[in-house]
Amino acid sequence: MAVASRLAVARVAPDGGAAGRRRRRRGRPVVAVPTAGRGRGGAVAASPPTEEAVQTTEPLTMEDLVAYLVSGCKPKENWRIGTEHEKFGFEVDTLRPIKYDQIRDILNGLAERFDWDKIVEENNVIGLKQGKQSISLEPGGQFELSGAPLETLHQTCAEVNSHLYQVKAVGEEMRIGFLGIGFQPKWALSDIPIMPKGRYEIMRNYMPKVGSLGLDMMFRTCTVQVNLDFSSEQDMIRKFRTGLALQPIATAIFANSPFKEGKPNGYLSLRSHIWTDTDNNRSGMLPFVFDDSFGFERYVDYALDVPMYFVYRNKKYIDCTGMSFRDFMVGKLPQAPGELPTLNDWENHLTTIFPEVRLKRYLEMRGADGGPWRRLCALPAFWVGLLYDEESLQSISDMTSDWTNEEREMLRRKVPVTGLKTPFRDGYVRDLAEEILQLSKNGLERRGYKEVGFLREVDAVISSGVTPAERLLNLYETKWQRRVDPVFQELLY
């Protein structure tokens, strides 16, 4: 299938040149699908959508939308690792969440001291960009690094360490710290500041209409995720299915959100549970991915009917909540009459879909809680060992091929409560995790980059059977004397 869209697009590349070479198909001028970086990821896309000077020669078709995803296929030698992680900023002296003014000062400090370019919306600095890395703000001020696509886990961990060094260098002078945990442990929803970003205002108004926990997701959760490549449609399908089946296992291993408003909340991963009642039109385990008919086209068909959030025009967000991209394709958005979508609109829409694994021009593994820096290196190692090695991938595919939709959904709902102790068939999730960890180690060994050491944190959790959340709960009951405040020091970056 051709990978070009029937649009004549003038897009300026970072070096000032036109991005994409013109091609021809059926006599009409087109350009290659834009090669935007991986900056917009995590629970919600973070920086303002890019805009293009677009001359639509004819409306986008299903083929164009499929081709956008197909354009992500790349040979194995070009596969990369993209890591994204969020963290809570807080005042060291009061433990209160930091407000936008403080965040603005941190962003300005990072830009001035470490040569980042500012991302501005309505005269507010809302993010930074440096090469293929970006720093962005989630709705409640959670700080996110969207890392560059890198070749090895050593590079990934070096990137994480560099970022945390920079953030600490600026934050410490302002008496601001950063916390690596999956859910805000102390403060109520009403205590969380709201970031001045247009898309988040639309989402904040919409979330209570479609679920009971959407505002908690926006304002009080942090995640870490890894973005990985595929070589073909068939490779994408295997990785997508494997990733979905194993997300609850990753959730158990990285479970790290046991507190809410100063007390245990009844979950090991409250963050993961929150996704079960955020907006089920755009989240979940996507059972259709396991159908024989699944492929790029089937995902596009699904995404077309996921309700939209917005259209971005003239640096403004137009509220289109509840409308479908399918209607947009034929110019039937009441809020934007006669407007037709561009590939940028499609790219932006895909960032507003939040399943446990998300497909864009790469796959995002989204099941893990935020955590301390060692786990920020361990999560990509876990997935790279499984999905970037053919032998491990085939073993995992065979292991999970007969799991039913009901079993996968059961794991998704029970693991946030019972973690590695969740029963599964004749054993427990911990038994599965041991076998999967060995496959990941084997895969990393065969990669030849001496990366197995990054799995030590995972190994410690699985061998002990104690999740990070259970360790925190034990500290809470003993050393911390049923006080949650010490977690801010325990998990300080």
The appropriate CATH architecture is 2-Layer Sandwich
For the record, the count of structural domains works out to 1
Silhouette: globular
Determine the strand fraction and express it as a percent band. Answer: 15-25%
Spatial separation of the terminal alpha carbons: 46 Å
CATH topology: Creatine Kinase, Chain A, domain 2
On the 0 to 100 scale, the average pLDDT is: 91
Biggest β-sheet strands, sense, barrel: 9 strands, antiparallel
- Helical fraction: 25-40%
Low-pLDDT stretches: 1-47
Radius of gyration: 22 Å
Number of strands: 22
Structural category is: alpha+beta
CATH class: Alpha Beta
**Number of helices in the DSSP assignment:** 17
Region (Disordered): 14-51
Pathway: Sulfur metabolism; glutathione biosynthesis; glutathione from L-cysteine and L-glutamate: step 1/2
Catalytic activity: L-cysteine + L-glutamate + ATP = gamma-L-glutamyl-L-cysteine + ADP + phosphate + H(+)
Disulfide bonds: 157-377
